[in-house]
Sequence to fold (85 residues):
Amino acid sequence: MEVYDGTRKNEIFRKFGWKTPMLELIFDYKGEEKRIFVKNESYNLTGSIKDRMTFYTLKKAYEKGKIKKGAAIVEATSGNTGIAF
Fold:
């Protein structure tokens, strides 16, 4: 298996606002070359936790005046969303 940094693909993904680097895995499967792109979550501040969704949710709520700077956020969750908040 070969691993490439996927630089060309990363440039495309960044245009959409995705900043987590991609790795391109090239390997042989049943005699055919296959390619898979995977996210390198070690570069993401919170790993693969739902930080993008929570950031967007909080940003929109702030822009609409539903929350104010310094407000406490209470989230009823037992999962990754609560950790991301």
Remarks:
- The radius of gyration is 18 Å.
- Residues 51-63 form the longest helix (13 residues).
